[in-house]
Write a sequence for this structure.
């Protein structure tokens, strides 16, 4: 049962994973953003990597872990590790299948991330939407209940599908000749689920 307990704790991270070459961030001041241009430039980049830490709080449980999330146009891979770098589990998938692999345990697969999460935790998680939210974008396919910008014109608070997503800090990331503001700290909340993602490094492909 250990695998399923850990699976239930870590699966909310999938809501950061679906859908979603190298340019490390540089700590320069963020300029006022033209939101339409910013979102257009960001949406063009379908290949990226985020490195940081995820903290999960669910009813009667919680924990934190390091993550490395690699996104390609057709598939993704997320590695989770503990405080001393030991591999805890890996989640990878494409538009046909999502698989969770844990050392010394059999892999678990489903057709979609939503199905995988619901089957093993009973939670209904809007994974496709969170793939936009983690990059600081609203999901264009769903109605926005609240959009509150910060002084730079970037999202400070977003509400969609009952979830509240708060962005307290951004970092500047260089991609080719452009510099984009990417989320550094994100808190996503829905009822008793709270996810906190602190990203210390972004890598973005050059826009095609």
């Amino acid at each position: 049962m250990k695998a399923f307990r850990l699976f239930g704790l870590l699966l909310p991270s999938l809501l950061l994973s679906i859908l979603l070459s190298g340019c490390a961030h540089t700590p320069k001041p963020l300029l006022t953003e033209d939101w339409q241009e910013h979102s257009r430039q960001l949406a063009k980049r379908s290949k990226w990597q985020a490195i940081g830490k995820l903290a999960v709080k669910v009813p009667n449980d919680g924990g934190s872990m390091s993550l490395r999330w690699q996104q390609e146009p057709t598939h993704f891979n997320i590695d989770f590790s503990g405080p001393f770098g030991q591999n805890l589990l890996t989640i990878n998938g494409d538009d046909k299948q999502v698989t969770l692999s844990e050392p010394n345990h059999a892999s678990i697969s489903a057709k979609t991330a939503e199905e995988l999460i619901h089957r093993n935790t009973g939670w209904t998680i809007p994974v496709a939407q969170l793939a936009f939210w983690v990059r600081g974008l609203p999901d264009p396919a769903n109605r926005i209940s609240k959009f509150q910008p910060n002084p730079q014109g970037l999202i400070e608070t977003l509400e969609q599908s009952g979830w509240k997503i708060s962005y307290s800090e951004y970092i500047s990331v260089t991609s080719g000749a452009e510099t984009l503001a990417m989320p550094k700290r994100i808190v996503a909340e829905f009822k008793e689920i709270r996810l906190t993602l602190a990203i210390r490094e972004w890598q973005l492909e050059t826009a095609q």
